[in-house]
Sequence to fold (329 residues):
Amino acid sequence: RMLLRLLSLLLLLQQARCAFDKPPMGWLSLSFGCSVNSTLVSAAAAQLNQLDLKHLGYDLVVLDDCWAQQSRSPGLTPDPQRFPNMSALVAQVHAAGVKFGISSAASLTTCQTGAGSLYHELEDVALFQSWGVDYLKYSNCGELNLEAFTKFYVLHKAMARQQASFFLAANPRVFSPSQWLPRVMDSWTTNNTGPGQNFSLVVQQATVASLFSGATASTKFANPGNLGLGTAGFADGTLRAQFALWCLLRAPLLITADIVNFNSSAPEPTWLALLKTKMLVDMNQNTLTAPGRKVAAYPGNTTLPVPDAIRTLLPARTAVAAAAADADA
Fold:
């Protein structure tokens, strides 16, 4: 009876949320680390328009970790030098037709030692609402002795109480399919290794994310990780494979490349052209498309076509990808 009451409460809370109907697409300030500031975030929003990405659906900028001061005084306080007016920054981003996301943590401190939201969930949700935040990246950075479900459920409940409608993207450090994930959050990270810099790791990350397809509703998204496009250390084949697989999985598409300092009048690089591959983006954003899942694996290092025996088991108009797990091609 207690379990049924808890599940009923979770369902009611979820109905109070305003879920996005498509995987988020946009830019994450991760590559700037603790040098990120208001000017860079505002410029990134402008660049999404300038680079012709926004009209394809890349309509989000996310301020990653390292924006908050280390101590609460008394609440979460942005670094006064780099973020003198957070409400004004959000307004600038919105004026560009772009959504604004921010990060916090289910711990006393964030992964970069800023103040976290643990035990302050209600007041922090209210603060984010007052700024006009559209998206919250919420990470399980510390206090891992506390159960992940408890920490994220408390935030979920705080959002319901405040009638907060922003998208909740979480890294709960839960790497096996769990039914509570889509009930409490809109998307969740399924690996903790960062972007895969070789083909086999990309395939591994995609495979793990595909295991969550049974727990992924049409408006809930398993996230195998950030895109590596435009960052150093990636072969072109790896980048193509990652983007295609992420689109097939209906995963969030978050760019971590430095688009701020990119000269929009320069020749278009391969990674930017890949981001604009309309067929793949449309597949990712199609609300009638179910997340992809792994249906077969071959031993060894051989690239083989998807056999007809497997194709005949799949519904019509099903997208199929086949690749060798040890080749950057």
Notes: The mean pLDDT is 83.
